[in-house]
């Protein structure tokens, strides 16, 4: 590893849970550096991943959402996101929103495994794994802070502090973001106006406020021990109402509940203690963690409800206080919240061996997790803030408290029989006992063969299978629909053939990855409940070109992912296309230091996505007093251009960024209806390092 670093080779720790070069990784991997994040003037993690990871694309939802290889869900719950190897995805919903709850300034590197990765990481590592590597105290070596302001009353700030002394290293970070978002005025005759009562209205896109998004944490390393603490929060404003019927609503008219206006809020507090040592020739890595999560979903039915639709029944509430339907006609809302805690531990053992002709290593590991959702609360009300019904814990039969436990065993054999060949074989067994005593048993294999003829070219062939168990939230919150509590895990199989070549070492490189995917038991939200919807088969090609000079950088990627077949049990599919997924994606990122002003960089980012089918409408979408369904709706392809300037002078730096420079009007699907996205936006930021 020392020789690799001296020669300038990029190293990573995510693909095999141990340090290795990018060429030795068993699957296609994207490395995103701190400099690459700065180059695109990224606002949040979704910006970064969609810019640099082939095949990733944004989709609409209650939270900031992503799709990978055409597989998406109601929230981001199919891509595993880690922080220094610690899982960030919720154990209740499986989701982790790639938004402003993740401060980008704290990051040193992002490692993205493209394709299934359950053989090492288990549940949720379905289509990709994103490992966020934080800086260390020695990287900062002092104090750094910054603040910015922009369109939509966007305000951001951060503070970093780091120091290394002898065998100890301390790194502290904090970040804050708040914004009203981009405001669209929606006339009652607009094609994007829905609802029971036609009305003029508005919607906010990417609003984060009441409470703002924040990210606070620290890492402390002393000798063989490392401790990490992290607390994150974000609350995204809903574009439309999301209870029963879709319509615009007056966001500022509703009273706050627990300090929150309408939207989905998640606050997570994490602690992780790690130990690393040797027993003879065996390296031992052990960790224990505690994650506490608090979630609030503040939903609206609508500002004005006709009497014919205003009688709300709660058929599952076996309570003497609920004797008749509740009549609610104005400012109708539902607030659902819960709290859960997860405790667990992991132990891993590594053994390296080497002879004159070959070398390799073995990995064995075990993991245990205990999940306890111990509190839930449901409030129904009207008049924009009046409580009509409040139910907690056992009285709330729309949601259940419960305990789930999981245990995993995994192993990996990485072997190089000669300098030109490496095979990497992994297998993981996951056992889970659900809250209702239902048992889940899953095997996740991975086979990989790597060919390294020389230092400039390599090729990899791999097969992997991954899974994501149906989220606890899906299984317990829709118990009125038979079968929802018995949802099966979703599976994803992928064969990948990839190759990369350096035409000019450290300057020009090219990478291509051909993949064939089969997804089964796809979990999808229907008009009335969640279902294992069917099977999706895709074939695709990912290509990446990089060019780097001292004063000029270029990154280009193109993804072509046609659908071979789609079989959904509950709805028709037009032309065998995956919903809300473009067949063709192209990214071009260029950055140039201007000759007349040293330290002044100009950046241009072009982002193109082709047409994508986005059928929408069901009993919840009302137009002209009737349920509306548009099975043929297609979101037109769009080209977005972002432009930015960055200037650095000694310990100061400043950025001016323009997003959607051409003010292009475009939509995103993925939720129940296509949502108009933000137009031209500006953001200015100042950084100081002491």
Describe this structure in words.
With 690 residues, the chain is mainly beta. Helix content is 5%, strand content 56%. Strand 6 (79-83) and strand 7 (86-87) form a beta hairpin. The chain is globular.
Question: How would you summarize the topology of this molecule?
Answer:
Blueprint: H1 2-6, E1 11-12, E2 20-21, E3 29-33, H2 34-39, H3 45-52, E4 56-59, E5 65-68, E6 79-83, E7 86-87, E8 107-114, H4 118-121, E9 128-134, H5 137-140, E10 142-150, E11 154-165, E12 168-179, E13 182-186, E14 201-205, E15 208-222, E16 225-236, E17 263-279, E18 282-304, E19 311-312, E20 326-327, E21 330-354, E22 359-382, E23 386-392, E24 402-418, E25 421-433, E26 439-451, E27 457-468, H6 472-477, E28 490-504, E29 508-520, E30 523-525, E31 530-532, E32 534-548, E33 552-560, E34 563-568, E35 584-593, E36 600-609, E37 612-613, E38 622-623, E39 626-627, E40 634-635, E41 638-649, E42 652-659, E43 667-668, E44 675-676, E45 681-689
Parallel strand pairs: 6-9
Antiparallel strand pairs: 1-2, 3-8, 4-5, 6-7, 8-9, 10-11, 10-45, 11-12, 12-15, 13-14, 15-16, 16-17, 17-18, 18-21, 19-20, 21-22, 22-23, 22-24, 24-25, 25-26, 26-27, 27-28, 28-29, 29-32, 30-31, 32-33, 32-34, 33-35, 35-36, 36-41, 37-40, 38-39, 41-42, 42-45, 43-44
CA-based shape: globular
Distance between the termini: 32 Å
* Rg from alpha-carbon coordinates: 25 Å
Q: What does the largest sheet look like?
A: 22 strands, antiparallel, barrel
* Strands, count: 45
Low-confidence stretches: 1-7, 569-574
Q: What share of the residues lie within helices?
A: under 10%
Structural class by SSE content: mainly beta
Number of helices, counting only DSSP H or I runs of 4 residues or more: 6
- The overall pLDDT average reads 91
Q: What is the strand content?
A: over 45%
């Amino acid at each position: 590893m020392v020789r690799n670093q001296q020669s300038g080779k990029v190293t990573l720790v995510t693909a095999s849970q141990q340090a290795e070069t990018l060429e030795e990784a068993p699957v296609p991997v994207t490395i995103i550096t701190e400099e690459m994040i700065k180059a695109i003037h990224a606002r949040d993690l979704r910006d970064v991943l969609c810019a640099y990871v082939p095949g990733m694309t944004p989709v609409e939802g209650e939270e900031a959402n992503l799709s990978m290889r055409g597989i998406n869900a109601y929230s981001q719950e199919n891509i595993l996101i880690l922080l220094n190897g610690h899982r960030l995805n919720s154990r209740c919903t499986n989701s982790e929103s790639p938004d402003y709850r993740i401060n980008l300034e704290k990051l040193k590197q992002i490692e993205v495994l493209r394709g299934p990765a359950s053989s090492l990481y288990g549940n949720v590592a379905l289509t990709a794994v994103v490992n966020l590597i934080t800086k260390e105290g020695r990287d900062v070596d002092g104090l750094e802070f910054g603040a910015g302001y922009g369109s939509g009353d966007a305000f951001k700030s951060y503070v970093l502090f780091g120091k290394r002394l002898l065998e100890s290293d301390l790194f502290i970070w904090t970040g804050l973001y708040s914004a009203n978002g981009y405001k669209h005025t929606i006339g009652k005759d607009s094609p994007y106006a829905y609802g029971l009562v036609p009305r003029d209205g508005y919607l906010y896109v990417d609003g984060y406020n009441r409470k703002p998004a924040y990210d606070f944490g620290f890492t402390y390393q002393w000798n063989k021990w490392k401790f990490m603490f992290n607390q994150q929060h974000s609350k995204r404003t809903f574009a439309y109402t999301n209870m029963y019927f879709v319509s615009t609503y007056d966001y500022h008219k509703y009273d706050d509940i627990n300090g929150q206006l309408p939207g989905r809020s998640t606050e997570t507090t994490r602690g992780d203690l790690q130990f690393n040592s040797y027993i003879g020739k065996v390296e031992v890595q052990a960790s224990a963690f505690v994650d506490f999560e608090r979630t609030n979903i503040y939903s609206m039915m609508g500002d004005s409800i006709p009497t014919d639709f205003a009688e709300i029944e709660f058929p599952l509430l076996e309570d003497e206080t609920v004797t008749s339907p509740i009549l609610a006609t104005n400012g109708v809302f539902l607030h659902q919240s819960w709290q859960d805690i997860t405790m667990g531990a992991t132990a891993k053992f590594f053994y390296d061996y080497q002879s004159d002709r070959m070398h390799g290593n073995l990995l064995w590991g075990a993991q245990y997790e205990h999940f306890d959702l111990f509190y839930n609360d449901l409030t129904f009300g009207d008049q924009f803030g009046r409580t009509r019904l409040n139910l907690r814990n056992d009285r709330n039969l729309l949601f259940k408290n419960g305990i789930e436990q999981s245990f995993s065993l995994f192993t990996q054999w990485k072997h190089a029989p000669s300098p030109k060949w490496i095979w990497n074989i992994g297998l993981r067994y996951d056992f889970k006992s659900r809250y209702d005593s239902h048992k889940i048993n899953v095997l996740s294999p991975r086979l990989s063969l790597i060919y390294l003829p020389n230092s400039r070219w390599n090729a990899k062939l791999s097969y992997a299978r991954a899974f994501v168990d149906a989220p606890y939230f899906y299984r317990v919150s829709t118990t009125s629909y038979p079968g929802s509590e018995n949802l099966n895990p979703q599976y994803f199989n992928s064969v990948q053939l990839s190759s990369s070549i350096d035409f000019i070492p450290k300057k020009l490189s090219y990478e291509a990855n051909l993949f064939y995917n089969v997804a089964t038991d796809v979990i999808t939200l229907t008009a009335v409940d969640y279902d294992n919807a069917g099977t999706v088969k895709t074939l695709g090609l990912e290509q990446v070109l990089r060019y780097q000079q001292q004063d000029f950088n270029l990154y280009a990627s193109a993804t072509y992912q046609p659908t071979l077949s789609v079989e959904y049990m509950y709805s028709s599919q037009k032309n065998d296309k995956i919903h809300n997924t473009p067949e063709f994606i192209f990214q071009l990122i260029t950055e140039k230091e201007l000759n007349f002003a040293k330290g002044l960089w100009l950046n241009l980012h072009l982002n193109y996505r082709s047409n994508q089918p986005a059928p929408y409408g069901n009993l919840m979408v009302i137009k002209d007093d009737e349920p509306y369904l548009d099975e043929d709706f297609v979101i037109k392809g769009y080209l977005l251009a972002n432009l930015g300037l960055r200037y650095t002078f000694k310990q100061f730096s400043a950025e001016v960024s323009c997003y959607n420079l051409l003010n292009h009007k475009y939509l995103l699907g993925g939720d129940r209806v296509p949502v108009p996205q933000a137009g031209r936006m500006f953001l200015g930021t100042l950084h100081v390092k002491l």
